[in-house]
Amino acid sequence: MIDTLVANAPGWTVETDVVVIGSGIAGLVTALKAAEHGRVLLVTKALLDAGSTRWAQGGIAAALAPEDTPEEHLEDTLVAGVGLCDVEAVRTLVTEGPAAVRRLIELGTHFDLAEDGTVSLTREGGHHRRRIAHAGGDATGAEISRALLAALKHSEGIEVIEHALVLDLIMDRGRAAGVTLHVMGEGQRDGVGAVRAKAVVLATGGLGQVFSATTNPTVSTGDGVALAMRAGAEVTDLEFVQFHPTVMFLGPDATGQQPLISEAVRGEGAHLVDASGTRFMVGRHELAELAPRDVVAKGIMNRMLETGESHMLLDARHLGRRFWEDRFPTILASCRSHGIDPLTEPIPVVPAAHYASGGIRTDRHGHTTLPGLYACGEVACTGVHGANRLASNSLLEGLVFAERIALALRDELEAAAVAQQDAPARALLSAGAVTIRRGGAALSGDLLVAAGRREGTAGLLDPSVHGEIQRIMSAHCGVLRSAEGLATARRELAALAGRTAAGPCVEAWEATNLHLVASAIVAAAGRREETRGSHWREDFPEADDRWLGHLVTRVQGAVLATRFEPSRSYRTTAA
Ligand code: SIN
Q1: Mean pLDDT, residues 548-552
Q2: What is the pLDDT of residue 424?
Q3: Can you tell me the mean pLDDT for 563-574?
Q4: What is the pLDDT of residue 151?
Q5: CA–CA distance, 462 with 139 (Å, rounded to integer)
Q6: Which CATH class is domain 452-560?
């Protein structure tokens, strides 16, 4: 197990107070709010608007309707999370959510409005009320992203670096003190560089590219989770990868980012049927097609197994032309671009990897288990999702916890300023005494390269393993899992570890990250011998309350160590 990626020595260094990695809702809100308290450097892997946020269709959930309450939102979230949500984290989410959404509106986000001028709310799976705010019909993420980027343009104190892959954490005396990164561009800050900061916020998004077919964009290669694990941080609940039930079926061998058909289409009345036209979700759950996402994904997979069909169908013809054009223009265009007209024919659908409910373990202020390192959004595990995220809680989580992180950063920056005044020796830190962790020792940047050269590219994987990791994970660690399949995945992933890269490059770093993340998912999925939420074991088909707790994984020396931690503040059923 490597604890840093082999890379050239940093050719440039920049100093800031806070470095935020990622430009989805979590990263942008953190950056905007943190800039009120210090200098911020915002780093993003591609263009500022290329992450998962802009692909979010359905919306953002919050108890905004007069007849709705945070308590009801809490209950729906706990039920979806099947006993593994942290109740206090969920309470934070649902009570702070409505005001946070209103602040998003004040900042310039235009949600769709009802005729009376209030925010128009829809339903999605697992919600007993209409509480999903949406924008542009089905382009909610794109609108939130637009509004936040407009605010970013007018903000002072935020520097942006695009096209930069973050590599590793820089540690100083047990604290995160910055990151190394590789900028894939041209100009002054090109190639490998170092950002030194008083705090690091990871908001790098998801890991869907671990699987062959996913709703995630190509940038979602689990870089944040891998970086945190290499630095020794704890990750948790990684086995709970959510498969979105209704992703357009483009054929059995389709790979890469697949077109999402939002749950909101079912929320507005679309039905799931098999080839014979039977509504197979009716009778499987009281909410039928609007059951929580894991239940619908399992219903679809079960029906596919029962009928031998390669996919199911989403019938939304009865919604009518006008409704389709007004409410789901993006999905309508996407269907038509693939030769499907949802006004006249049902849409072929299958489940595909969509969202990591687990991630880097944090408290309710985004602190990870490493001092100075914060995590926010999909890369984090705050405890709000449990075994299965409730639809449209993800944008809300990114928003609410980013605001909380900004408050924690304010305190941290103030404390750092006081400490600097009190102890002039600490100025050494900003004068170049920053160190990079390697093999448990603290080495300077130059020594890191020397060590890297001595070891060649040991541990850095050849880019060709990327596709193989996806194949292994989809075949053996997808919607339906078993001990046998997971053992095969473990064996095949271990075999890939010997395929080292000829030299450092973006594709090799990404493949190495994917491999670490995939290995950690398989380790946790193998340990959890029950079916719960989005973790479905055909050999252990029932939930087993001996497993009410979390699998916490860490890199320890050469191995991945996974331990079980019994639950603390969880409820198994709704009150
Ligand atoms: C959807 O629109 O169905 C996706 C929303 C989500 O993942 O919460």
Answers
A1: 97
A2: 59
A3: 70
A4: 97
A5: 37
A6: mainly alpha
Catalytic annotation present for 293: yes
Q: Which 8-state DSSP code applies to residue 478?
A: S
For residue range 387-417, what is the model confidence (pLDDT) as tens digits?
A: 999 999 999 999 999 999 999 999 999 988 8
The closest alpha carbon to 389, from 172, 206, 227, 228, belongs to: 206
Tell me, what's the pLDDT at 190? Answer: 73
Task: Yes or no: say if 300 and 350 are a contact pair by the CB < 8 Å rule.
Answer: yes
Ligand 1 centroid to Cα of residue 271, in Å, is: 17
Which ligand 1 atom sits closest to the C-alpha of 389? Answer: 8
Outline which parts of the chain fall under CATH 1.20.58.100.
452-560
For residue 394, the CA-to-ligand 1 centroid distance in Å is 8
Find, among 475, 265, 240, the residue nearest to 349 by Cα. 265
For a ligand 1 pocket test, name from 57, 144, 395, 399 the mutation site with the most ligand atoms within 8 angstroms of its C-beta: 57
Residue 323 has pLDDT above 60, yes or no: yes
Q: Which residues line ligand 1 (CB under 6 A)?
A: 56-58, 262-264, 355, 391-392, 394
**Would you say how long the chain is, in residues?**
575
Radius of gyration of the chain, Cα coordinates, nearest whole angstrom: 23
Q: Which residues pair with 276 in a beta bridge?
A: none
Which amino acid is present at 461? L
pLDDT at 453: 34
Instruction: Compute CA distances 2 → 9, 360, 381, 477, 560, whole Å.
Output: 17, 18, 23, 24, 11
Given this model, what pLDDT does residue 121 score? 97
pTM to 2 decimal places? 0.92
The single residue listed with the structure tokens 């600097």 is 420
**Cα 9 to averaged position of ligand 1 atoms, centre (Å):** 41
Task: Delimit the CATH 3.90.700.10 region(s) of the chain.
Answer: 248-351
Q: Which CATH number fits domain 248-351: 2.60.120.620, 3.40.630.30, 3.90.700.10, 2.40.340.10?
A: 3.90.700.10
Which position among 293, 361, 389, 404 bears the catalytic label? 293
Which secondary-structure segment (H or E) carries 103? helix 87-106
Nearest residue to 45 via CA among 14, 25, 21: 21
Q: Which two tokens stand for residue 155?
A: 């903000």
Sequential DSSP letters for 363-401: -TT-B-SSTTEEE-GGGEE-SSSTTSPPTTHHHHHHHHH
Could you tell me the distance, in angstroms and rounded to a whole number, from the CA of residue 330 to the centre of ligand 1?
14
**Cα–Cα distance for residue pair 374/316, rounded to 1 Å:** 42
